[in-house]
Amino acid sequence: MTIPPAAGAKAPPSAGPDPNRGPAAPRRLSGAAILIWAVIAGLGILFGVFAVAIGSQAATFGVMRWLLALAIEAPLAAGIIALIWYSRIMHRATAAGESGAQALARSEAKYRELIAYAPDGIFVLDPQAKVLDVNGAGEELLRHGREDIVGHSFMEFVPPERLETAHAYLMDRLKGLRATELYEATLAASDMKPVHVQLRSQVVRPADAEPYVVYIARDVTAQREALRQLVETERWASMGRLASFVAHEINTPLTNISLLTASISRRVSDPEIQERVKKIAAQGRIAANITGELLKFARPGAINPVE
Q1: How far is it, in rounded angstroms, from Cα 113 to Cα 216?
Q2: How many whole angstroms separate alpha carbon 139 and alpha carbon 7?
Q3: pLDDT tens across 283-306, in order?
Q4: Within 13 Å and on the Cβ side, how many CA atoms surround 219?
Q5: Of 169, 187, 219, which one is at a domain's C-terminal end?
Q6: Among residues 204, 219, 234, which one ends one of the domains?
Q7: What is the rounded average pLDDT of the residues 142-167?
Q8: CATH code for the domain in which residue 197 is found
Q9: CB 131 within 8 Å of CB 152
Q10: Given a cut of 70, is residue 192 above it in pLDDT?
Q11: How far apart are alpha carbons 265 and 261 in whole angstroms?
Q12: To which H or E segment does residue 24 belong?
């Protein structure tokens, strides 16, 4: 099977006359038809010559001569009629064959268009993983030209760490051990960046050829990145909620400590106690600064280190 590349092609029309049906070409006579009509013409001439000869001698003919003339003309007439009938049958059969061939060509052209304009990458692989065909979306997926894909092993576009898994998947599909469910895979594009795809495959087993595998690959790299960012955002949001809860729970006893040290400082005049109260208050302010930095997890802003 051959799939024409879709690169640079216009999208197929959605309605209107069939673009694959060109103007009707004049039908040509085959060699067999020409030969048959030549024989018919020859027999007709011969029939006419005999008819003229019989007509010119009819007055002198007896019964035997009329029977002889009938024996000559009747087979000629029957042969002409049979050849004309056979020619019409051949004409109808040829017309039906041409119509069937045109319908098959139109159907194949539509099939090729469907494959060429498919939004997902389609790869046709033989049992040895050699790429037999690829559509335009497959070329864009791997960022390679058609000549760099067809004829090469599909495993050339699989990262080394995924080769064993990719080989096992292909062998299992050929053995019929896996269903056609979506399979998460990673391919390597021409710039060596990983391309995450959802892979669906189907094994085709022709009666007169070796089986081949059709891979349909959908690029989900953008979706994977969006999901990663969503998970990351949710993780930071959870950390922010936790930090906010811890900070508020710690701030309550810190506030009580600050109030008590201030009250003691006003009531006591002993220098030693005053010095200790100041140290307690300083440590409380450090703890308060730490809880303040924890609260920044719950809202945008830089986190400043606390000495």
Answers
A1: 16
A2: 9
A3: 888 888 888 877 776 665 544 544
A4: 18
A5: 219
A6: 219
A7: 91
A8: 3.30.450.20
A9: yes
A10: yes
A11: 6
A12: none
